[in-house]
From TrEMBL:
Protein's recorded name: EAL domain-containing protein (Putative c-di-GMP-specific phosphodiesterase class I)
PANTHER family: CYCLIC DI-GMP PHOSPHODIESTERASE PDEF, SIGNALING PROTEIN
Domain EAL: 6-254
GO molecular function: cyclic-guanylate-specific phosphodiesterase activity
Gene3D superfamilies according to UniProt: EAL domain
Pfam families assigned: DICT (PF10069), EAL (PF00563)
Length: 423
C-alpha cells in the first residue's frame, strides 16, 4: 500500500495526518468450529520508528491538536484501500473501528472516492463501543443506519468491559457482539456469567452472532465456545499482519441481520407517543393517575444487577422537580444511561443525568414519556397532554399508551435518542 508523503520524515502528528501516513495490519477472524478465517479486523498503525506508531499514542496526539476525527477517517479509508489492493472481496468480512468523535465529521474530500469504492466492493462491519452511543446517541444511530443502508453491518465492541453496556446494546441492534478479552482471561469474576447470559439472550432474540476476542490458547477457545461464541480472534489464530493473498473461505461468511430488522427512524423522527399509540390501545387519565405508573417504571431503572437505560420527557423543566431530579441522580449512579428532555432543561439537569433542551415548538413538548430498557426488562409509558384548561396540576388530562412489547419499546427509545445531542 502506498501513502502520500514520507512517514519516516514526519516530525509531528500533524504531518502524519497531512500525509495520510497510516498503515493497516489485519488480524484474522475465525469460524471456531472449522478454524478457518471468515474475515479480518483492520488495526491501524502510525509510521514505524516514530512516537506515534502505536494507535493509542497516535490518537492521543491527534486529539490534542483537534484532528482525531480526521485521523479516524484516514484509518478507515486506508483499511479499505489495503483490503481492495490485496484482492479482498465480499466473501470475507472486514471489521473496521470508528471512534465516537468522528460520527459527526464528514469524510475528507480526498478520501471520499475510496469510501465509495469500498461500499461497492467490500463486505464491512463497523465496530462501535458503548462510549459512542452514550456520548452522541443521535449520531451513532444515524451512522448505524447509514451502514445498513449500503449493506454493511454493525458490531458492538468490548462487551463486558463495562457491564452497563449490555442495556445499550439492543438500541444499536448489532449484527455481531464482540466479547471483551477480559471475559476469557479472567472468567471467574462474578459479572462474567451476567455478561455472557445477557449476550446469549440478545443473540437468541435477534439472530446476532457472538465473537470472542483474545483467544490465545486452546483453553481460551474451549471457554469461548461455552460463552456462546461461534467466531473468534486472537493470537491462537494469528497476530495482526499485512493482509495475505486471497484464499478460499470456509464458506460461512459473517452473517448479518436482515436489513429490515431495525425500523428506520423517520426524519424528523416520530415521537414515542406516536410510535406506541399506533400499535397499542390509547386511554385517558389524569396526571395523578399516571404518576404512580411513571414512578414504578423509574424504580425499575434502579436495578443494580441489570443496569438499564432510562429515558424520560417531562414537557418543561418546571415539571422536573427537585425530588425527581434527586431520584434520577440516584438512578444514574448505577444505570447504563439516563437522559431527560424538556423545554428549559440544562445539559446536566442532575448529577450523572444527560439533559436535552427542547424548543418551544418541539412536538415533544406536549409529551410525558418514561422509557426503560434493560438486558431483559423493557417498558414504556407514553402520554400526550390534551391541553385542556381550567384544571389543577393534578387534574391535567393525558391520552396515553403503556407497553411492555420489547421491540416497540426499543423503537420508541431509538426515536427519543435522536433528540439527544453530544455530551
Amino acid at each position: 500500500m502506498t501513502v502520500t508523503g514520507s512517514p519516516r520524515a514526519a516530525r509531528t502528528v500533524g504531518e502524519i495526518i497531512d500525509a495520510r501516513a497510516v498503515t493497516t495490519l489485519f488480524q484474522p477472524l475465525v469460524d471456531l468450529e472449522r478454524r478457518e478465517p471468515v474475515g479480518y479486523e483492520a488495526l491501524s498503525r502510525g509510521p514505524a520508528g516514530t512516537p506515534w506508531q502505536a494507535p493509542i499514542a497516535l490518537f492521543e496526539a491527534a486529539r490534542e491538536i483537534g484532528r482525531a476525527a480526521e485521523l479516524d477517517w484516514i484509518c478507515r479509508v486506508r483499511a479499505y484501500q489495503a483490503a481492495l489492493a490485496a484482492g479482498l472481496d465480499d466473501s470475507m468480512t472486514l471489521f473496521v473501528n470508528i471512534e465516537p468523535m468522528a460520527l459527526r465529521t464528514p469524510c475528507p474530500d480526498d478520501l471520499f472516492p475510496a469510501t465509495v469504492a469500498a461500499q461497492g466492493k467490500l463486505r464491512v462491519v463497523t465496530e462501535i463501543t458503548e462510549r459512542a452511543i452514550a456520548g452522541d446517541p443521535s449520531a451513532l444511530l444515524s451512522t448505524a443506519a447509514a451502514c445498513r443502508a449500503v449493506g454493511w453491518g454493525v458490531a458492538f465492541d468490548d462487551v463486558g468491559s463495562d457491564p452497563a453496556s449490555l442495556a445499550l446494546m439492543p438500541l444499536v441492534r448489532p449484527d455481531v457482539v464482540k466479547l471483551d478479552m477480559g471475559l476469557l482471561h479472567d472468567p471467574h469474576r462474578a459479572e462474567v456469567a451476567h455478561v455472557v447470559n445477557a449476550a446469549i439472550a440478545y443473540a437468541e432474540r435477534t439472530g446476532a452472532v457472538i465473537l470472542a476476542e483474545g483467544i490465545e490458547t486452546e483453553e481460551h477457545l474451549e471457554l469461548a465456545r461455552t460463552m456462546g461464541a461461534t467466531l473468534g480472534q486472537g493470537l491462537l489464530f494469528g497476530p495482526p499482519a499485512p493482509l495475505p493473498a486471497p484464499s478460499v473461505t470456509c464458506g460461512t461468511s459473517v452473517p448479518l441481520l436482515p436489513a429490515d430488522g431495525v425500523p428506520p427512524v423517520a426524519v424528523p423522527p416520530r415521537s414515542p407517543f406516536e410510535i406506541v399509540a399506533a400499535a397499542k390501545p390509547v386511554l385517558r387519565a389524569t396526571k395523578a393517575r399516571l404518576a404512580p405508573i411513571s414512578q414504578f417504571l423509574e424504580s425499575k431503572a434502579r436495578d443494580e444487577g441489570e443496569p438499564p437505560v432510562l429515558l424520560a420527557c417531562f414537557q418543561e423543566a418546571r415539571f422536573f422537580t427537585p425530588s425527581m431530579a434527586q431520584r434520577f441522580a440516584d438512578t444514574a449512579t448505577t444505570a447504563a444511561f439516563v437522559a431527560v428532555l424538556g423545554v428549559g432543561l440544562d445539559e446536566r439537569p442532575a448529577p450523572g443525568v444527560r439533559g436535552a433542551r427542547l424548543s418551544e415548538d418541539d412536538p415533544l413538548r406536549g409529551e410525558w414519556n418514561v422509557i426503560v430498557v434493560g438486558p431483559y426488562f423493557a417498558a414504556a409509558l407514553t402520554a400526550r397532554d390534551l391541553g385542556l384548561s381550567g384544571m389543577t396540576e393534578e387534574e391535567r388530562r393525558f391520552e396515553y399508551a403503556l407497553t411492555h412489547d420489547r421491540e416497540l419499546v426499543l423503537e420508541a427509545a431509538r426515536a427519543l435518542m435522536y433528540w439527544i445531542s453530544p455530551a
